[in-house]
Specification:
Number of helices: 8
Oligomer: single chain
Shape: globular
Strand content: 5-15%
Distance between the termini: 19 Å
Structural class: alpha/beta
Radius of gyration: 16 Å
Mean pLDDT: 93
């Protein structure tokens, strides 16, 4: 496993898993939020330049890329290049718990997986996005997951993540609940 894509809802544990895998496997980690956002939560003006930047990252030999960005960061190309696709797919309430505890722990500070100048904030639009994710975004990601012909793992909660990381540590083929 040299190229790993991690997708899923905000609050599902994508960044936490990416950090853990990077430590275990020695792979560079790319957080798409960190690459995409400009200071004060501003989107890049030149989306084509951002996409070219992401393609350059994807063309390298080793990476863990976490984040969805199906269009802006070309999820189909990421999947084509990936040795492993991980779909973080816990229940909605676990994701809500994840973002709310994250906001409480890091409010006003920039997280290590976020772009400079983008401090954690309480954003009701974002909370609604996560609440509605199972209906609005999950079907799209599930379709990518289902259509992916390479190695893939769907993780549905903290215990499945723990088991997955143990399988990585033991050097066996990573397994999830699917």
């Amino acid at each position: 496993m040299k190229r790993i894509t991690i997708i899923g809802s905000s609050g599902s544990g994508k960044s936490t898993l990416a950090f853990a895998l990077a430590e275990k496997l020695g792979l560079p980690t790319i957080h798409i939020d960190q690459e995409f956002w400009q200071p004060d939560w501003t989107e890049p003006e030149d989306k084509a330049a951002f996409l070219a930047h992401m393609h350059a990252i994807m063309d390298s030999d080793e990476w863990i890329i976490e984040g969805n960005y199906t269009t802006n960061a070309d999820l189909p190309k990421r999947l084509e290049r990936s040795d492993l696709l991980i779909f973080m797919d816990p229940p909605r309430l676990l994701c809500m718990w994840g973002i709310l505890t994250r906001i409480l722990k890091t409010y006003g500070r920039v997280r290590k997986d976020m772009a400079p100048g983008c401090p954690e904030r309480l954003d009701w639009e974002f909370i609604k996005y996560v609440w509605n994710f199972p209906k609005t975004q999950r079907p799209k990601l599930k379709a990518f997951y289902d259509g992916h012909e390479g190695h893939k793992v769907r993780l549905t909660g903290r215990s499945s993540v723990k088991s997955f990381l143990i399988s990585i540590r033991n050097g066996s083929q990573p397994q999830g609940p699917d």
